[in-house]
Give the backbone structure.
Amino acid sequence: MSAVLVAVFNDYEAAEQVLVELVRDGFPTDRVELTACCEPGRAGLEPADSAHGKFVQYFRILLRREDERHYCEQLAERVESGAATITVHPRGAIETARATEILEHAGALQLVPHDLENQTLEYAAAKHEHPWPSNLWLEDTGHADCIYCRLFEGSSD
């Protein structure tokens, strides 16, 4: 899975709010990432001697084409200057469209797409205005102690 959207935001707080919105919309937490100086995330795991080097290496993993190399240095400099990035790994046109909509609506300063034509799977993002758990209704039977017991009531082991 190499499709990626990288969005730049003014600061950590703005990016954190967008991350929460993406997760609430249905994007799995392992496919959205926040990168900032105060919270380097996966970039902090890169084998480099400086924070700048770690950020550059991280963005080079995401943006691998030769014509994207300039973005890696640019993104690293912006993060070091106080900006923060949100990286989304969308799967399919619906997720790409929804992530783009959320990122742009939140005021992304820059949006860098990578390899969006090579995507698999679909529908992790909600197609509705509200997340799917709002549509879950369980009747209280009065004797089930947990949601799993209530969902699978009457099944045998």
